[in-house]
Design goal:
378 residues; mainly beta; Immunoglobulin-like; 9% helix
Length: 378
């Protein structure tokens, strides 16, 4: 069947409208899909076709139809109501999703004092036959040896993903393949980048910090000397509703906890002809390296350029957008920059009361000067 015929078929099955009354249907063009109401009476057209008419949204509303739930209390979709050639159009602010059922409600009783009863029509676009294409592109940290007090994973996908039920698709397995009970901090507001391609997955801090009830009662999520596997199931769907191509697995061995704060004084800076290379004594937080470490010139102005994190998050490489100009520069680090265990430059993630804090960095940034020298004459 062609796509238009499928839409009409849905209307014929779900619509109780009389042949001589208004009709509602979906119209799809290259600009998008619109709900169109035709066959309105002259009285309705007169009332709704005024430039300042605010009854349109009251008369025509569209809702996502949720199984087992009534329309009452369900918010109407956002969009624009307008007239085109004696037809009332509703243009959704966000594109309709193929396969999802939408309930269009035409309530002309708002215009005639309740004489006309509301009419409901279920509309849907045919679900697209798409082959799975999204994959887990990478998971950070990339190392296969991770500290017992690891704070989080970053799961990168090749395409925007469905959000809201992420934790049901992720498991942490022990050496025998048994799932660890509640290892993650399951947040109501999931942590995604704006593109919807990077998910931040926290280990439950209650299973990391000593002295907290979850760790005392259940034990740490990760234990030194043991091997684990992070599993991202292929049941996870992308933003278009298609599952992942395959299940992703990352196996790793757990080492002892890391309670040492990052020390910028121990960083190794190498100024190249076209870049700056910063080597760390230990791996750092991949995502934070992209926004909490930058370069300024002698005037304090930020130098634009490209950042690449390499060698299992132990190297930060910066390539300026324009060739280096000889002179003085500073590498600037936000003191909130963390390693993989949540220890920041400014403070350790977990303070052991049996020993003093190794250091306390004042201020919000830490600067390391470096020089770009003039090229040697040939």
């Amino acid at each position: 069947m062609s796509r238009p015929f499928l839409i009409v078929l849905v209307l014929l099955i779900c619509s109780p409208l009389r042949a001589d009354g208004p009709t509602m249907r979906l119209v799809t063009t290259k600009e998008g899909t619109t709900i169109v109401v035709t066959g309105l009476s002259k009285e309705a057209l007169t009332a709704l076709n005024r430039p300042d008419a605010d009854e349109r949204a009251k008369v025509l509303s569209v809702h996502v139809q949720r199984p087992g739930k009534s329309r009452e209390g369900q918010p109407a979709m956002l969009g624009t109501h307008r007239f085109v050639k004696d037809a009332l159009h509703f243009e959704p602010r966000f594109a309709l999703t193929p396969g999802v059922r939408y309930l269009a409600v035409l309530d002309l009783g708002k215009l005639d004092g309740g004489k006309s009863k509301p009419v409901e029509v279920v509309l849907s676009l045919p679900k697209l036959d798409r082959k799975p294409s999204a994959i887990v592109a990478r998971v950070y940290p990339t190392d296969d040896r991770l500290p017992e007090n690891l704070l989080k994973f970053y799961v990168h996908f090749s395409a925007p993903m469905d959000q809201g039920n992420s934790y049901r698709h992720i498991k942490l397995l022990d050496e025998k393949g048994k799932a660890i009970d509640l290892p993650f901090l399951e947040l109501d507001q999931e942590l995604w980048n704006p593109e919807g391609t990077r998910f931040t997955l926290f280990i439950d801090p209650g299973r990391i910090k000593r002295g907290l009830k979850p760790r005392e009662e259940v034990g740490p999520a990760l234990e030194e000397g043991k091997r684990y596997t992070l599993v991202v199931g292929r049941t996870w769907k992308d933003a278009e509703g298609t599952p992942l191509v395959t299940t992703f697995r990352k196996s790793f061995t757990v080492t002892g906890p890391d309670a040492v704060q990052p020390d910028p004084k121990k960083w190794n800076l190498t100024v190249g002809k076209s870049d700056l290379r910063v080597a760390f004594p230990k791996p750092m937080d991949h995502a934070l390296l992209g926004r909490m470490l930058w370069v300024i010139d002698a005037r304090g102005k930020r130098v634009p350029g490209k950042i690449v994190v390499e060698e299992k998050e132990t190297v930060w490489r910066f390539t300026p957008a324009r060739a280096w100009t000889p002179g003085s520069y500073h590498l600037v680090a936000d003191t909130r920059l963390e390693d993989r265990s949540g220890n920041s430059i400014g403070r350790p993630f977990e303070t052991d009361i049996s020993r003093p804090v190794e250091k306390k960095v004042e201020g919000k940034t830490f600067e390391i000067p470096f020089e770009v020298k003039k090229p040697a004459p040939k």
